[in-house]
Amino acid sequence: MKLQLFNKKLFVSLGSEIDPNRFPQYSNNQKFQEIQKPKGIVYFEVNNLLEAKNLTQKFISEFDLSGSNWVGGRVIDEKNNFIAQISYNGRIWESENYPCKEIEI
Hints:
single chain; alpha+beta; five-stranded antiparallel sheet; 25% helix; elongated
């Protein structure tokens, strides 16, 4: 797989959404903080899977996301082919369908 990624443009999705199951339980202050977080998904170009992992972790930390509102982590190439999935905890997977093999970098 590593050889196939050489000289390919890669993109990682970063995104969040409001967790409808938790939102009603939040205080007004928590609700305000939650609605200030970015909504939807945006793809950012990265050079490799390590950079994609680091960017996802920084995004999660910067916006104080939880596993229930993190919706990013999909890594694709310039032709929109799936490459890997980065989970909330920073682990990298070879498929979007679990269980699957973890990619070690």
